[in-house]
Amino acid sequence: MSDWKSKQQLVDLLCQLVEYPSITGSEAEIALAEHIHQRFMEKPYFKEHPSHVKLHPLPDGRELVTALVKQDDTQDTVILLSHFDVVGVDDFGSKKSLAFYPRGLTEEYERIKEELPEAIRHDIENGEWLFGRGIMDMKAGLTLHMSMIERAMEGEFKGNLLLLTVPDEEVNSLGMLQALPALQEIKKQENLNYKACLNGEPMFSQYPGDPRQYVYSGSIGKLLPGFLCYGKETHVGEPFAGLNANLMVSYLSQELELNEAFIETVGEETTPPPISLMQRDLKDEYSVQTPQAAVAMYNVLYLKQSSKDIHNKLLEAAHRASSQTSKHFNAKARAFLKEKPGIHIPERPVRVFTYEELYDEAVQRFGEEEVERRRNLLISQRETGDREFSTLLVQELASLCKDLAPMIVLFYSPPFYPSVSSKEDKYIKDTLQHVKDYTEDRFKIKLEEVEFFPGLSDLSFIGPPTSETKLNTLLENMPLHGNGFELSDERLSMLRMPILNVGPRGKDPHQWSERLELTYSFEQLPEIISETIHTLLKS
C-alpha cells in the first residue's frame, strides 16, 4: 500500500517533516534524521532488508540517512540527494511560533492577508500554496524522494535507487562531506554502479515574479574570503599616533562590495558580484581607544574561474585598499599639520599578507611549537562558530607580529563550494531534453535548463568540477583546515558522477514568506521525477 503517493499524502508527509524544527546544529536536526530512518523501517521492504537503511554518524554526533532499494539483476543506481536542515526563524517575528506548522501558519496568513504584500496575498488567495520554514528549502524535495523510494519498493524502476539525505547543508555541508566515504562504502558492499546523482533542490526565480520553471545541470561555486584589518591602536585624543582598523575596513569595503571585476558570465548566466556577509570591529567593549582590529567577510560566487584566479583578485583588492588607506591617513595628517607647525607625523604604510605568509612569519619569530601551542590553547577553549573562530585564529597570529601593523590579512573560512556542471555530458543532456519534452507533452509546461543552480547545493561535492585547480592556495590560507574542518583534493575527488537537479516550485527561500506551490510540486512533479529516473536508468 502506498503511503506517499497522492497529493494529500505528500502534503501530510511534508508537514510531518517540517514540524521537526531541524535548524542546523539543533537537537531537532538529529531527531529528524532518526524520524526519517524510522519511517523507512516501517516499510515491509526495509523490514526484510534492514541493512539497506542506515544512520551514518558525523564526528559531532549528527547523522545522515541512506536508504537503498536494490534490484537483483542490475548494478545501475541513481542517487537521490537532499538535505533536511533549515535556517533559523527569527525573521518570522511575531509568527515565529508557527514557523514549523505549515497549515497553522498558512491559516494565520490567510487571516491577516490584507496586511501582507500583494504577491503573498495573491498566492494565499490562490489556495495552492503552503507556508513554513523549510517547506521549500528543502523538505519538499526530501518528501518527493521518499515517495520515489516507495515507488521503487513497489517495483516501478528497472534499477536501484539510493536516497541520501544529510544535515548541515545550510552551514558547512559537513553532512555531504561525510556522506562521500559512506557512499563509497555502500557502493563497494552492494556492488553498485552510480550512474547519476539527482538533487531535489527547489527551483529559484531569476527575478521577482519570474513565471518560468527550471531544471539544472550544475551548481554554482562559492568562496568565503575574510580580511583581518589589524591597525595601530591609540587614544582618540591622539588620532594620528595610530591607525584605526575601521578606516582600513572601510576602504576594503569600497574595493570589494559589488566589485564588477569578480562578476563572471557563462552563456546567459551571470554571477552576482561580491557582497559583505560580516563587517565589524573586534573591540569587546566601549572605550576611547580606537579599534585595533576589524574583520570583513565576503560572499564570492563563481562559475568556471579557478580559486587561484579569485585569490589573486582578492589580493589585488586588498593592496588597493591598503594604498587608499595610507593615502587617506597621510592627506589628513598633512592637513592637521598646517595648524601644528613643528610636529612630525610619520606615514602609515599598510602591509598586506595572506594567512599563510603571516603564519610563516610567526613561526620564524617564535618557532612552530610555540605558535601551535597558542593555537591549540584557543582550540581547547573554543566557544564560537566557524567564522568567528577563524577570525580569532588570524587575530592571534597578528598579535604575535603586531610590529608589522598596520596590516590586512587575507584568509578563508568555511564553507567552500566547488562549481560543478554536467551540461556538456551527453547522458545528462539527452536526459534533460527527454524530460523537457515529456513535461511539455504531458502537462503543457515548458521547463528551461539552467547550467548552474544559483542557491548553492551539495551537488558541488559530487559533480564534475568546472575547474581542475588544486585546493592548495585555499586550504593553506584557511585557519580552520585541520582544526575542526577537513577538506582535501582527495576527499573532493573521491566520488564524481553526472548530476542534475529537478525540484519543486516555491518562493522566498530563507524568508518569512517561504512557501511551496502544491499543484506542480505534488501533482505533476512526481511524474516528472519518475520519468527522469526511468530515463537515467535506461540510458
Descriptive notes:
- The protein is of the alpha/beta class.
- The protein folds into two domains: 7-220 and 418-463 and 498-537, Zn peptidases (Aminopeptidase, 3-Layer(aba) Sandwich), CATH 3.40.630.10; 225-412, Alpha-Beta Plaits.
- The chain contains 16 helices and 21 strands.
- Strands 1-2-5-3-6-19 form a six-stranded mixed sheet, sandwiched between helices. Strands 9, 10, 13, 14, 15 and 16 form a six-stranded mixed sheet that branches.
- Helix 1 (7-18) crosses helix 16 (518-538) and helix 6 packs across helix 16 (518-538).
- It starts with 6 loop residues before the first helix and ends with a helix.
- 45% of the residues are buried.
- The model has no long low-confidence stretch (mean pLDDT 95).
What is the topology?
Elements: H1 7-18, H2 27-41, H3 44-48, E1 53-57, E2 63-69, E3 76-83, H4 102-111, H5 118-126, E4 129-131, H6 135-153, E5 160-166, H7 174-190, E6 193-199, E7 213-216, E8 218-219, E9 221-223, E10 225-230, H8 245-256, E11 265-266, E12 269-270, E13 275-281, E14 293-302, H9 307-337, E15 351-354, H10 355-366, H11 368-380, H12 386-400, E16 407-412, E17 420-421, H13 426-443, E18 447-450, H14 472-476, H15 489-492, E19 499-501, E20 506-507, E21 515-517, H16 518-538
Parallel strand pairs: 3-5, 3-6, 6-19, 7-18, 15-16
Antiparallel strand pairs: 1-2, 2-5, 4-21, 8-17, 9-14, 10-14, 10-16, 11-12, 13-14, 20-21
Helix pairs in contact: 1-6, 1-16, 6-16, 8-9, 10-11, 10-12, 11-12, 13-16
InterPro entries: Peptidase_M20, Peptidase_M20A, Uncharacterised_RocB
Protein name: Arginine utilization protein RocB
GO molecular function, one term: hydrolase activity
